[in-house]
Write a structure and sequence with these properties.
Elements lengths: L2 E3 L3 H7 L4 H6 L5 H8 L6 H11 L3 H4 E3 L11
């Protein structure tokens, strides 16, 4: 995937006082979304919005586009 995390999202949330238990208990995001983030899959836009709110940052502080044009992808 060409979109990657620039930061350790869960680590940043933990440093801001939001550990996994608090995230689940306060229903900030579900376990499935936590698992996606842990495994490097991109979070939903709603979750990105919430993460940016909690960390007081912009989406570009969390995610980045990585050029993968050197791979052989079919032309659209």
């Amino acid at each position: 995937m060409a979109i990657k995390y620039k930061i350790d999202v869960l680590g940043a949330l933990k440093a801001a006082g939001y550990n996994s238990t608090r995230i689940r208990n306060e229903k900030i995001m579900g376990e499935s979304m936590l698992q996606k983030i842990r495994s490097g899959q991109v979070m939903s836009l709603a979750t990105l919005d919430k993460v940016c709110e909690l960390l007081n940052c912009q989406p570009g502080d969390v995610l980045e586009y990585v050029d993968i044009s050197d791979r052989d992808f079919p032309k659209i």
